[in-house]
Amino acid sequence: MEEYLVPTQFGEAGFVEKKSRFIGRVWPVESEQEALEKIQAMRKQHYDATHNCWAYILRDGAVRFSDDGEPGGTAGMPILQVLQREGLYNVVCVVTRYFGGILLGAGGLVRAYTKGAKIAVDAAGKSVKRVWMSLYVPCPYTFYERVKLETAAFGGIIRKTDFGSEVEMEIMVPQQAVQPFLSRLTDLSAGVIEGLEIGEEYRAFPTE
Q1: Are 149 and 199 in contact (CB under 8 A)?
Q2: CB 26 within 8 A of CB 127
Q3: Phi, psi of 115 (to 5 degrees)
C-alpha cells in the first residue's frame, strides 16, 4: 500500500491584507463529493464574502481549483500549488476573502491566497498514511527512556503505556522499520527487550 501525506485535522487561520480579510480553511476528505460539500458549506456560511476560492487534490487523481471571480490564476492555482508543495492528498482548501476596498493587484492576490492556504495547512498539520505495524514491547524501567528515544528515532509512535512490574508499551512503527527497530532494542538491552508484532494497520499518524 502506498505512503502519502494527508491533513491531520481541520485547520483554520486568517489575516488582514490592506483591509481585505482572508480566512483559510483546510480539511481532510476521502472523496470528490466530500470536497465539494466542504466548498458548498463555505459558500453558504460566507454568502456575503467577496470570493470563496478553492482547490482540492484526491489520491485517485482528481485535481480541481477555482478563482471564484478573482482574476484568472491569482487565487485557485496559488492555493493548489501550496497543497502540491506540501505534498498533500485527500485535501480541500477554501480561502475566503472579504474585500476591504483596496485593490491588491495580481501579485498581491497571489501572495495573499498563497498565505491563506499555507497558514491553514499549518493549522491542520500533516499526517503520514502508510502501513504501520503494532508491536508489544515490555521492558524494565531502566530502559524505558531509551526505548522512547529509539521509537522516535525510527519514526515510531507510542500508542499505549502501562506501568506495572515493568513497562508495557504498544508501539506503532512504519512497516519497513520493524526489523531494524526490534534488532536495535535487542542490541541496546543485551537481549533483555524482545518486542512482538501484534497487528498491522493502514492509517494516518501525525508527522510531528
Answers
A1: no
A2: no
A3: -65, -45
